[in-house]
Amino acid sequence: MPLLPRIVTARLVERFIFNFRLRPQMLAERLPVDWLDPLVLKGWSLASFCVLDLDRVTLWPVPPIIPIRTVSCAYRCGVVDASSGVLENSVYITDRNTDRPIIARLGPLVFADTIPSVNATIARSGDEIEISISHVDGQRLFSATASVLQVPADLRSQVFDTIDDFSRFIKGGVSSYSPSVRPGLLTRVDLAKEDMTYEALDAEVDFNALESLWRDANLELDCVVRATGGRYRWTYRGTRAIEPASG
């Protein structure tokens, strides 16, 4: 842990969570350490693409005098952390991304995490929401079109029975691990978030980069959820060495 806390706070405007189900073994093969195991729900594991529209982003304890707004995104995988000897729900993040160059420059200094710049658009046309994320070189990362379901409580999921089940899942993973800017290490960041409002969406995914990276994982879109409201607080918790996975 650093001598001084490294904490970033923000207000959530909205968050889109595209949940892709895959078999636990497919996820296990892609986790970097043997003390992270796939979280299994109804025989499935989840890799989700999260798009966060945040404002009032600031480094604690500095107040958000200069309003900073960003669209950030990441692939997050539900895992179980066994590093302490007690099984705890956690999250493995392949990479964090932001459309704000200042965050891309300063973020690695705060969290020891790689945070590349991307181009991000969230556009609305009637009831439709178009989301498009690409790397700065123009290579696509993710794109989809979503709309609110006629019956909002209808999650249409093979993993979650209700929106409340999903809410408990998403709130259960406080800690997260992601590749560090320092070779051979994972960086840990804990996320505390207030209660939010969740609603199910209907969606068509046009492009998902993870399908190209994990070609044989057989990712299937399970459900899409939008969250609004609440405060976010990220706290840097240091790094852990990546050791070769056993077996």
What is shown here, in short?
This protein is mainly beta and 247 residues long.
Keywords:
single chain, 247 residues, mainly beta, Acetoacetate decarboxylase-like, seven-stranded mixed beta barrel, 4 helices, 13 strands, 52% strand
CATH superfamily: Acetoacetate decarboxylase-like
How would you characterize the largest beta sheet? 7 strands, mixed, barrel
Detail the poorly predicted runs. Answer: none
What strand order characterises the main sheet? 1-3-4-5-9-10-13
Helix share of residues? 10-25%
Mean pLDDT: 91
> What is the helix tally?
4
Indicate the multimeric state: single chain
The CATH topology name reads Acetoacetate decarboxylase-like
User: Which descriptor suits the 3D outline?
Assistant: globular
CATH architecture: Beta Barrel
CATH class type = Mainly Beta
* DSSP, total strands: 13
Order of helices and strands: EHEEEEHEEEHEEEHEE
| Termini gap | 31 Å
How many domains is the backbone divided into? 1
Structural class estimated from helices and strands: mainly beta
Structure description:
It is a single chain. With 247 residues, this protein is mainly β. It has one domain (7-241): Acetoacetate decarboxylase-like (Beta Barrel). 13% of the residues lie in helices and 52% in strands. It contains four helices and 13 strands. A seven-stranded mixed beta barrel has the order 1-3-4-5-9-10-13. A hairpin with a 5-residue loop joins strand 9 (175-179) and strand 10 (185-193). The radius of gyration is 17 Å and the shape is globular.
